[in-house]
Amino acid sequence: MKKKKRKKRKEKRKGKRKKTRRRKKNKKRKKKKRRGKKKRKKRKKKKKKKKKKKKKKKKKKKKKKGRNVFYTLAVMSAAQGQSLIYTS
Composition bias, kind Basic residues: at what positions (predicted)? Predict the structure, then answer.
């Protein structure tokens, strides 16, 4: 008959248990400090959506309606004549 192997106790577990116990103590200490303060809820930051740039439409230049050249000359000369009157 085969001998049954005896299970060795895991040493790792011991260490883990100690850590948890220590952590609990710390938690209690922290709670005592925080008695007066109310915990504020953290708000989730909203991700900003990138705006698509709109393409600017080019404005068409309005064509100046061709006036009679003689008319413009007449107007200019009249204006010059007026300026002469004002200066004299």
Answer: 1-67
Separation of alpha carbons 24 and 19, rounded Å = 9
pTM: 0.18
d(CA 21, CA 14): 11
Q: Is 16 exposed, middle or buried (0-12, 13-18, 19+ CB in 10 A)?
A: exposed
The tokens describing 18, both together, are 């100690």
Domain ranges across the chain? 1-87
